[in-house]
Amino acid sequence: xxxxxxxxxxxxxxxxxxxxxxxxxxxxxxxxxxxxxxxxxxxxxxxxxxxxxxxxxxxxxxxxxxxxxxxxxxxxxxxxxxxxxxxxxxxxxxxxxxxxxxxxxxxxxxxxxxxxxxxxxxxxxxxxxxxxxxxxxxxxxxxxxxxxxxxxxxxxxxxxxxxxxxxxxxxxxxxxxxxxxxxxxxxxxxxxxxxxxxxxxxxxxxxxxxxxxxxxxxxxxxxxxxxxxxxxxxxxxxxxxxxxxxxxxxxxxxxxxxxxxxxxxxxxxxxxxxxxxxxxxxxxxxxxxxxxxxxxxxxxxxxxxxxxxxxxxxxxxxxxxxxxxxxxxxxxxxxxxxxxxxxxxxxxxxxxxxxxxxxxxxxxxxxxxxxxxxxxxxxxxxxxxxxxxxxxxxxxxxxxxxxxxxxxxxxxxxxxxxxxxxxxxxxxxxxxxxxxxxxxxxxxxxxxxxxxxxxxxxxxxxxxxxxxxxxxxxxxxxxxxxxxxxxxxxxxxxxxxxxxxxxx
Length: 504
Description:
By secondary structure, the protein is of the alpha/beta class. Helix content is 43%, strand content 16%. The longest helix is centred in the first third of the chain and has 35 residues.
């Protein structure tokens, strides 16, 4: 019942943004939808194992009851309905049957095996090592959920699980008649032969609601994906990153949102999520895509980015867009003090945020609640800074012109470098602008001391709710989440750090 709800992204976006019927503390829980989806999947797998093991024991006991050939209660119960099969309790009807035959010839057995195989394939292909390296395997295999749902809905139609009927209980009380099982149905006995029937299938009652919602979700997404999208510009950035600028009629976005993208010339079925790097104030929307896998490499080549000559617009591949969908970053402007932490290409949602800040300051927007932004970017390669440096330079110069240089504090960390780069950094370290980014703020080397950073921010903003927004790896999320809890609980000045993480 619950497994489909966390992936109904339109429903979640509606509850998070359009529908203001919940407080922010409640809607923040929606940001953990993928984590919840995984936890439900683990519980389904665990209870599936329990269910299968229980049935294996059951069928072994059913078989033993048929082979008993004594006057025991299990044997007597197994013989009921032998003549016409209208009323029986033991689904194994003869002593010539075996549990394996039941598992692979009965409807309940076949549907159970099909659902279990689908579940095993879905879970194994969802492992991070598979998902990261072979996304297509994960994508296609995960759609076996259709087989899984069909299997569990029809699993109960065979009515393997049986029980005494309500009418029979009125004339045959099990508590009174259990001791008289050898004389059931004989003259001068108060206990007639009990009647049994299979329990009706009930799974459909639990899953029909979520399945209907998910079907509506897919129909909405299909309708939106059919709307025309125009690729207006393709920009190749260093470190194998491309920027696609697109236009779509009626497209409206908020900062930090993401879209699903499909390129039919590459695959008719694959959809991949990408964070929007444009601001709501711009007349187009854009995504930055790092080339890290087969699909992104094919997109890189389809856009002509591997060629030196200019690519005509009509030769660019068709793109389908589904979205935008809401994320935690939508709430960034609800906090007076904000910490933005991006790792590598994880800086993309913050490009949208910082661009929006730039536009709001350009148009003298006085409704901006945010008074201070601390921006942290951790990157391994110097080339990765280049595509983002122009935006930071524009913000830096604008804030200086307006006498508000303290509004944005940014800290860029280079976490890896070679000997030649180290020599270059040393030679040019005394220059006014940073040798890597061209910014006045110098690039830092290594990794931040998060404990010191949190202490500094807490001392600068006593009694403030600080919103921390992260787009980065799980290891960094654990560290920052722990620091948020530690410094919120321990700080006597009443500073409260609220942790938000991007999830796709």
